[in-house]
Amino acid sequence: MTDFPAPRPTLRPHVRIDAGNPTARGQQRAAQLGDQLHGALAIYTKFFDLGGLTQQQVRSDAERALEDISNFAPELAEEITGTATEANLSPWQVAALNARTEILARSANIAPGECSTIVRETPPGTFGVQTWDWHVELAEHWHTQQVIGGRHHMVGITEHGILGKIGINSAGLGLHFNILGHREDAVGGIPMHVLSAYVLQNAGSVAEAIDVVRSAPIASSGSFALLDRQGSALLEITPRGVFEVPPLQPGTHLRTNHFLTETPKAEEKSWLYQPDSGQRFDFLAARLANGAPDSVDELFEQLVTGSGEPPVTCVPDMNLSMGQRWASLATVILDPSSRSAKVLDGTPAEAGQRPWHTLIAN
Q: Which pTM value belongs to this model?
């Protein structure tokens, strides 16, 4: 029997969290997600199994991740525990969701997803656009969120049970997030998704965010494209250090899923993303070379691709098996000047057919 995913929902869940106590924030998250949180865990449990990971391996990795989170950001560990308690789950199960990238890095069978990000600095302001491409089976298991209670309020998108992903905060700091693959990737530091939430809750500018990232214990890889009203920076975060990527051209950053700086490139898991990531990067770079857009709408259009073009707009091949079916589940525009995240519930090509959600970090 073919394992087809359920249709995408027409009404996306929105989680609003407002509490000074991190345990209460976790409880609010679980209460609003209800059984949907269990559904996300069930799918990831299947992915872990398909990846050849035993429950004991997953539990051991998740417990290690929760310990590392507790040592660096105890309030976020408390939030994860609060989520688990309210959802009648063990803390390690919610920690496994938050460390899903790091745990799946063990697998040779479940490849990571692919995303494309462009950030532009223009005279009117700085803005960024991104596709979030992931397993189509998770199409029903992500939500928009507003989180109040940290140093800065944040809005954006994340998956059920996971603290953060792509978003912007009340100081006007935006964060786009892409996965990278390094041969030393492992559990044993702050998971990338947790780090993204920590940055948005604690940094008020690109400069502060870079300092936060450099202060974190890192054992896995990812890329943060950071932007505020004054400018932007593109970071490659790896077990070998944090590296700042030069702009593609003045005022423009482009990111897919392969390393762009020399030190981590030498130890890249190139088989995970190539040739796809390089093809998407080169295709978008060629488009931008013809004239970098100075408006959000024009920049958004750069992400629309069709038949015969690299899958920046990613449509799943349902003839493939579970774990190999990629889809652009969401497309996100971040605007620091208005502290807003505009979220399209679908691919860039579906801008006129799928719902949009506008979130303001007040």
A: 0.95
